[in-house]
Design brief:
alpha/beta, single chain, 3-stranded antiparallel beta sheet, about 20% strand, about 270 residues
Length: about 270
């Protein structure tokens, strides 16, 4: 491991590359954390120097194969079923139910969905209202490994945390062989696909949405990068569309064109028009 030591100079160029390509920001105080994750991946890939690993990522990885592997090592897949459920219930009632009543088939995008618990929870809540077939659900993430787990419909027991609704869990999640298995019709209702939130062309190709969920994601970006992502998400909303962020997040410090609304303690950001 001595050859994989991370000098201040290597930290600066590696962390800069990671932020440029993935968006994740590592401060100087997080140098050891980045060293731990990157050195493990670099060693696994057969490198004996983090500087060599940087040069490979920068110049010798045209198809992004190694960057994809590094991304899987870096991203935080901290999510669980029914997380901040009240906010989801509110946005369904205020945004999706009225659109379904008008037979408009709303489009929903769960951005940075990780292993899929968020969009799958949304599918369960829509199913409870008899609306699942009337809503298009798309979920994306930058991590191929996380998406593979999401598509499998199999999750670890820790994907259910204290305070979850027992009746919904019993109805849509089945325990078998130490795994939680999502009901097939819930899993089939969500289309999972790979996407980097910094990729403007990829986002534009998705077409506009009535609702975008980007919860507990922007906290991993510096303000300038978060502002860039918010602009891309705003452009991906239909007029009148809503962006929902995490309950502890706020877009106001970024200066957004979206209008902030509050409902029962949950904050939403609506695109005028």
């Amino acid at each position: 491991m001595a050859e994989l030591e991370m000098s201040a100079q290597v930290f600066a160029i590696l962390s800069g590359l990671i932020e440029e390509r993935i968006g994740l920001h590592y401060s100087a105080a997080e140098r050891d954390l980045l060293w731990y994750k990157v050195s493990a991946r670099a060693s696994e890939a057969g490198f004996y120097s983090l500087l060599d690993y940087y040069y490979h990522l920068r110049y010798d990885d045209p198809d992004g194969v190694e960057l994809t592997a590094l991304t899987d090592a870096l991203v935080v897949n901290e999510t669980f079923f029914f997380r901040e459920r009240a906010a989801l219930e509110q946005v369904i009632e205020s945004q999706l139910v009225p659109l379904c009543a008008r037979k408009l088939r709303p489009r929903v995008w769960s951005a940075a969905c990780s292993t899929g618990e968020e969009p799958l929870t949304l599918a369960m809540l829509l199913s409870e209202r008899g609306l699942l077939s009337q809503v298009e659900l798309i979920a994306t993430d930058i991590s191929q490994r996380a998406l593979a787990r999401a598509r499998s419909g199999e999750h670890a027991p820790r994907s259910l945390r204290e305070g979850y609704p027992q009746e919904l869990a019993d109805k849509y999640l089945h325990s078998a062989a130490g795994k939680l298995r999502v009901a097939p019709h819930i899993r089939a209702a969500v289309r999972f696909t790979h996407l980097n939130l910094l990729d403007q062309a990829a986002i534009e190709s998705l077409q506009p949405f009535d609702l975008i969920l980007c919860r507990n994601v922007l906290i991993y970006f510096r303000d300038e990068r978060a502002q860039q992502v918010v602009k891309l998400l705003t452009a991906a909303l239909k007029p009148g569309g809503v962006l929902l962020v995490g309950v502890s997040e706020s877009l106001l410090r970024f200066g957004t064109a979206l209008v902030c609304e509050e409902r029962a303690g949950s904050f939403y950001y609506r695109k005028e028009g």
